Amino acid sequence: MAIDRLFKDEATEEKGERARMASFIGAMAIADLVKTTLGPKGMDKILQSTGRGHSVTVTNDGATILKSLHIDNPAAKVLVDISKVQDDEVGDGTTSVVVLAGELLREAEKLVNAKIHPMTIIAGFRMASECARNVLEQKVVDNKQDAEKFRSDLMNIARTTLSSKILSQDKEHFAKLAVDAVMRLKGSTNLEAIQIIKKPGGSLKDSFLDEGFILDKKIGVGQPKRIENAKILVANTAMDTDKVKIYGARVRVDSMAKVADLEAAEKEKMREKVQKIISHGINCFVNRQLIYNFPEELFADAGILAIEHADFDGIERLGLVTGGEIASTFDNPESVKLGHCKLIEEIMIGEDKLIHFSGVAMGQACTIVLRGASPHVLDEAERSLHDALCVLSQTVNDSRVLLGGGWPEMVMAKAVDELAKKTPGKRSHAIEAFTRALLAIPTTIADNAGLDSAELIAQLRAEHHKDESNAGIDVITGSVGDMSELGISESFKVKQAVLLSATEAAEMILRVDEIITCAPRRREGM
């Protein structure tokens, strides 16, 4: 009896077969969950939180869906993590990663049931993914030298990325926005310089790209509405100390006159601070905190535009873009870096007034203003656009491009299949299984579009057995089409990340033979 009691009460362990079953099933369930969002005809999911306000998210982005799920199954968590990493690393392909890993496990399960050791399967998967990656590297197209061609590659990639998202109707418009924004970055992958502002109203078509920087604030009363050759001081400091606050301040005085003196002294301190700020020779002061009406008045008298309560992201980005640093003390004006821009003016977008900084020091900066029918549409549009921007900025650095639409998977599958035929021993079964898992992606794309996937994949395979074929699934006509004519492209970097992450995740889950769940901590005094 003593041997059974290794763990505390309520701790559970699953061993061997059962543990493996549990992890396989969990991972496959997750893969099936996001499977339907894959491809140009993929559907969206509504996620409703149970918290306060029951906020609703409508999304097609694999990582967003999985991030919002609360999952118990440990293997499923691994898949959620790889999709998160894929999202951070390259921005797109979050669904593909999960679907591929899920399929690899589905195939692995069959092999395990056929009494093939997990380590053998892993060795096979390793060989297969290596082979698949090499064949992709041979097939890439690189148009970095030819600016015209490279731009059209980028446009194609943007269109392909956006076609599976909510923006697919206006993908021309948005692809152009995204490419213009990324081209301005001149090769840096710092997406901070591209600011996305969401304003409900209008339709998605009314979205536009604006060079410069837009701050979502109104200009205060009695202040200049337009400043040319602005020198900007970006600050994070309290400008609300000129009154004795009633709450939280204990002041003992003999008479009311003393209170008045105190107030006068505080006001004097404030005036000095404002003088110090003005002595920087600026004509625009942006502060993260409140500015009370007294200092505001002083600024207005000096002809300085004072903006209060600019939110933190706004401030950081404004500092970055105008080349200024955020200051919080003003004693030595020479050590503070001021921001510069050519023109500050107030603009209207829809109903709202915003402040527009144009001709900023950092030439890469720009702002994309999204318009749309409702906040949900805008949120989803922002996610989709962010995916496109990530992929494009990665492609500008690593300019290798592949065709899309299931073409890379077919190419990899063909190469991996040939490897399986050459490999002796049990590993060949695993390599063959890898081929089947790769085919799952084009199959899913076809299934989601309501096409006969078995028929299409068979046709694709036949096409790819001829040398140098560009065949892929053309979802619009529902047949096999030429991907280079249709202009469906993907970034090599994204595909490579999908392949490697999925294989590693599947490998990790395969290695599991025991799941131990720890007993919950007891509350004291139970």
Automatic annotation (TrEMBL):
InterPro entries in the cross-refs: Chap_CCT_beta (IPR012716), Chaperone_TCP-1 (IPR017998), Chaperonin_TCP-1_CS (IPR002194), Cpn60/GroEL/TCP-1 (IPR002423), GroEL-like_apical_dom_sf (IPR027409), GROEL-like_equatorial_sf (IPR027413), TCP-1-like_intermed_sf (IPR027410), TCP-1_chaperonin (IPR053374)
Keyword Chaperone belongs to the record: yes
Q: Which CDD domains match?
A: TCP1_beta
Q: Where in the cell is it found?
A: Cytoplasm
Q: Which UniProt keywords apply?
A: ATP-binding, Chaperone, Cytoplasm, Nucleotide-binding
Q: Which domain of life is it from?
A: Eukaryota
Pfam families attached here?
A: Cpn60_TCP1 (PF00118)
Tagged with keyword Endoplasmic reticulum: no
User: Which family does the UniProt entry place this protein in?
Assistant: Belongs to the TCP-1 chaperonin family.
Role, per record: Molecular chaperone; assists the folding of proteins upon ATP hydrolysis. Known to play a role, in vitro, in the folding of actin and tubulin.
- Protein name according to UniProt: CCT-beta
Q: Which organism is it from?
A: Solanum tuberosum
